[in-house]
Every structure is written in structure tokens, then in C-alpha cells.
Amino acid sequence: MCIGLPMQIKEKGFGYAICEGMGITREIDTLLVGDLPIDTWVLVFLKSAREVLTEENAGKIAAAVKAVDLIMEADAGMSTNGLDLDAIEALFADLVDREPPKPPSLIAFEQSQKKLKTVKTQ
Prior knowledge:
The mean pLDDT is 88. Helix 1 runs antiparallel to helix 2. The protein has a single domain, classed as SH3 type barrels (Roll), CATH 2.30.30.140. The longest helix has 22 residues, at 55-76. The chain has a five-stranded antiparallel beta sheet. Strand 1 and strand 2 form a beta hairpin. Helix content is 39%, strand content 26%. The termini are far apart. By secondary structure, the protein is of the alpha+beta class. The protein has three helices and five strands.
């Protein structure tokens, strides 16, 4: 499985940058995102920057990756006894108690079904 890591550009050159994030430093390919200023956040997959991030989104992704790490560590021990579910939930604070938005295709389908029911009852 490949998980993107949020990293911040600290040094740069033509087509590459030295980035830090999630406690690691890596030289990454920046050809897909172009020349970016120092301190820009990027989402890195397999040593290649694929997307420019806001600092807020970088923080959310870092928290989600940390939560996955905690779950995988507990799973490796084959026990969830030491797993702090409140701590993991806190890492997904932006998703807790939030109703996910419906995709436009589902909204259109539901509207067409309502119209169909109206026609059948007339």
C-alpha cells in the first residue's frame, strides 16, 4: 500500500527538493508540481511530489497517517487492549460527528426517484 506523506520543501533545485515531514527528510522529485517556494507543503508518494497542500490540509493528512500507524502497531501486537480509541478519534477530529456530503450523482438519482413516485401516485 502506498500512502502519501505531507512534507514541506526546505531546499530546492531544478526538478527536485529536499523536504521534511513526518519526522523524515527526503530528496523528492518535483517535476509534477513545478518549481515551488521554500516552505510549501506537498503530498509525496514514492519520493515524488504529486500535489501542493495548504498547511491545514498537511496537518490533517499527518494526523490521519499517525492514526493509521497507531492502529497498525496495535494490530501487529494482535491486541487492541492498549489502543486508545479516543486518541485515534481525536486525530480525525475534522470527520467526527460530520455528515459526509452526498455526491451530485446520488442527489440527482434521489430527485429522479421522487419525481417517479409523484408520477405513479397521480
